[in-house]
Amino acid sequence: VADGRARGVLTSDGTEWGAGQVVLAGGSRSGRLAGVPADVLPPVRPVKGQVVRLAMPDRPGPFLSRTVRALVRGSHVYLVPRDSGELVIGATSEEMGWDTTVTAGGVYELLRDAHELVPGITELPLTETLAGLRPCSPDNAPLLGPTGLDGLLLATGHGRNGVLLTPVTGDALADALTTGELPEGARPFSPRRFGAAVLTEQPA
Hints:
Blueprint: E1 8-10, E2 16-18, E3 22-24, E4 45-55, E5 68-72, E6 75-81, E7 86-90, H1 104-117, E8 126-136, E9 143-146, E10 152-156, H2 166-179, H3 196-199
Parallel strand pairs: 3-10
Antiparallel strand pairs: 1-2, 4-7, 4-8, 5-6, 6-7, 9-10
């Protein structure tokens, strides 16, 4: 920050990159980035999501050819077949701070709920379990566009829909970077919807 506006970034190795505008898109760590004034740090918290990967059988005809999304016992579950033969099952939604431990309960719930949709999955080899952190805002909606600091824009807080909202986020930020304003459809997601008190309350 220089002369009251964002002027670029300083990397951990000391390299400075100057820029006329800076987009902060740091995922769940967006609210913890050093050098950003406290009154414009995004109010983003981490929400844990556990995922299971299985190997689909190598046989004529697909085991599962389309993405399946459903609500099972009040929890969202999805099954995504990959061209590689992998089946991705996800994902839990847990308010656990910065914890990324894969738990037996999380894996069990994913497999149990997926089994309700496609019973044959319990016969597939388990190839990987993992947990990541989603960036979530106080109202669980994205934080997009200009902040209270000239030259600093946000693209974070997408929660469990980050990948799905990538194209529309890119379009909205392109408009904001070139015109100084979000397009009309994205304006409800301006970071300015939160007051200063919320912006300065950072997760532990």
